[in-house]
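Dear Dr. K.,

Following up on our conversation at the group meeting, I've run the structure prediction for Molybdenum cofactor biosynthesis protein B from Candidatus Thiodiazotropha endoloripes. I'm pasting the input sequence below exactly as I used it, so you can double-check it against your construct before we proceed with anything downstream. Let me know if the numbering doesn't match what you have in your notebook.
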Amino acid sequence: MSDERQFIPLNISVMTVSDSRTEENDKSGQKLKSMLEEAGHQLADKRIVKDDRYQIRAVMSEWIANPDVQVIITTGGTGLTGRDGTPEAVEPLLDKIINGFGEMFRSLSYEIIGTSTMQSRAIAGVANGTFVFCLPGSTGACKDGWSKLISAQLDYRTRPCNLVELMPRLLEK
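The predicted structure tokens came back this morning:
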């Protein structure tokens, strides 16, 4: 962290992908909301979306098109079951994939859950100047993804570089 730079709060939307979660039992979505707010960011929107690629894309597209949303974080739908479709829904919307995110997430997860991490299809990318991170549905995965990867990259004070300082250049032609 650099003391010479000021923190820049971002507007972040959170999507819980689930056929069974409600606002009352959405622990992962609530955890993401509380962590981003504790870090000083603002919640732009939070929704629970059925594990259906077209419903996911509809909400994701709305947020990607909204210039007031700078970051989107999803939780859920990144596994291998027939209903897990978040990567398939999101990837066609991305302009660029941040390959290092999925690689680092699985590497960090390996230390906690061992070889089970190979079942994770966590991904990240950029769409229309908006950063998108897709995390597994467990609260632990959301906590680890935020605290060990995402939060530092969404903090302008992180050196030697961070995603915030790239934001003005994301839409360059």
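Two things stood out to me. DSSP finds five helices and six strands in the chain. The radius of gyration is 15 Å.

Best regards,
J.T.
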